[in-house]
Write a structure and sequence with these properties.
Length: 332
């Protein structure tokens, strides 16, 4: 297994290089230009900016050469700094990229982690129940509801909930993660206020994602229910509950564990659309706001971070599959 992990990690280096190169080219060819946007803002303020000043600003930010070889040189300049642990400074946030990611990643992780736990608590028993009662009323209703929720765009469901529960009923705040509390507010009051702000975003995330886990659990349970050893267990006279929850359920968790391991990028990367809709200052929203302004260093740092998490998640998924299922042997 050690040789397999080392081989995968070495291969991951080339994958990350390819991913970062593609992303850098896309960012440099986007119509949004940070320097031109900043120049337009300064010029609009009546500062008398000239084209010469604009060109100097482009040189300062390394955006003066838009040719193919100029972009290649720009990528390798970024790569050289990244290999030394320097991801540059965010042009919008005016902080080191690594500091921005570390600062805003916590709230994204908290929301995604709690949402995933709730999704599993709902999806796993519901998937098992639907499989045991295949083609029953519960199976049909749960399938239709879950598939309908999965089809909803995130921004549509999020704005719908804001309209209903925040603007019309005034049950929850419209956006943000905190109210105007007094400076001497207790820690529990601050925590409770934050949870109050995050209820709607977490409900939206759960509703959008629970369907995929439920369908996955249902499919796995149906496969196990048709296995020979399950028929043997029933033939021995075991009760249906013991067959389902001791033999079937245990074996359906094997593929589910591997799926959970691959959710690592989602936990740390933030739900960009959900955070933007609800105004949550997580890493997803901060990156989106910076990206639309052409903040190349933060966009590169964030995407490299996500690429590394994705590769580690897939590797962890493979390892977990071998751990939970002794029949699986990882290749050398």
């Amino acid at each position: 297994m050690v040789k397999y992990i080392i081989k995968r990690l070495l291969l991951s280096v080339f994958i990350i290089l390819g991913v970062t190169m593609i992303i850098y080219f896309i960012l440099r060819m986007m119509p949004t230009d940070f320097v031109e946007g900043k120049f337009a803002t300064l010029a609009g303020g009546g500062t008398g900016m000239s084209d010469e000043v604009l060109q100097k600003m482009k040189v300062q930010y390394g955006l003066d050469d838009e040719s193919f070889w100029g972009i290649i040189k720009g990528y390798f300049r970024w790569l050289g700094s990244a290999l030394q642990g320097d991801l540059g400074e965010s042009w919008v946030q005016l902080q080191p990229v690594s500091k921005v990611i570390a600062q805003y990643m916590g709230i994204s992780f908290g929301v995604a982690f709690v949402s995933m736990i709730l999704e599993l608590l709902i999806a796993i028993p519901l998937g098992v129940k639907c499989a045991v009662n295949q083609y029953g009323k519960l199976d049909y209703v749960a399938t239709v509801v879950c598939m309908t929720l999965m089809a909803f765009p995130t921004f549509f469901l999020g704005n719908l909930f804001i309209k209903w529960f925040a603007e019309d009923l005034h049950w929850f705040p419209i956006s943000g993660i905190s109210s105007n509390l007094p400076s001497n507010a207790s820690g529990w009051l601050v925590f409770g206020d934050m949870m109050w702000h995050l209820i709607l975003p977490m409900i939206v995330l759960v509703m959008l994602n629970v369907g995929s886990y439920m369908r996955y659990q249902r499919t796995n349970t149906l496969e196990v229910l048709n296995a020979d050893y399950i028929r043997t267990a029933r033939a021995k006279g075991l009760s249906e509950n013991k067959v389902i929850y001791k033999h079937v359920f245990r074996n359906t968790m094997i593929p589910l564990v591997t799926v959970m391991a691959s959710t690592l990028p989602m936990l740390f990367g933030g739900a960009m659309i959900t955070e933007t809709v609800f105004g949550i200052p997580g890493i997803g929203k901060i990156t989106y706001d910076s990206l639309i302004q052409g903040d190349i260093p933060l966009a590169m740092g964030y995407n490299m971070f996500i690429a590394i998490l994705t590769i580690l998640g897939i590797l962890l998924s493979d390892i977990m599959y071998a751990v939970v299922d002794p029949r699986v042997k990882l290749g050398k």
